[in-house]
Automatic annotation (TrEMBL):
Pfam entry (one): DUF739
Lineage, broadest ranks: Bacteria, Bacillati, Bacillota, Negativicutes, Selenomonadales
SUPFAM superfamilies associated with the record: lambda repressor-like DNA-binding domains (SSF47413)
Organism, as annotated: Pectinatus haikarae
Protein name: Plasmid maintenance system antidote protein VapI
Length: 72
């Protein structure tokens, strides 16, 4: 299963400017964020919760940012 993280990517750029800056705030490497956004590895529940806080995303919008399935 693949997820469409385009909305999340946009929010990262809007709030942090780069994936690298967001990765540092999240406490992971830039490569880890890249792998997650490219559906190579999954976000953990803790990373999702921390991302919501860091990006100012309402918990009610979690599906739109993290669980929007990619259309094949």
């Amino acid at each position: 299963m693949s997820f469409d993280y385009s909305k999340l990517r946009g929010r990262i750029v809007e709030k942090y400017g780069t994936q690298g800056a967001f990765a540092r705030a999240l406490g992971v490497s830039e490569r880890t964020v890249s792998l997650k956004l490219n559906n190579r590895i999954f976000f953990s529940q803790d990373e999702i919760n921390r991302s919501l806080f860091l990006l100012g995303i309402n918990v009610n919008d979690v599906t739109a940012y993290f669980f929007n399935e990619k259309v094949q």
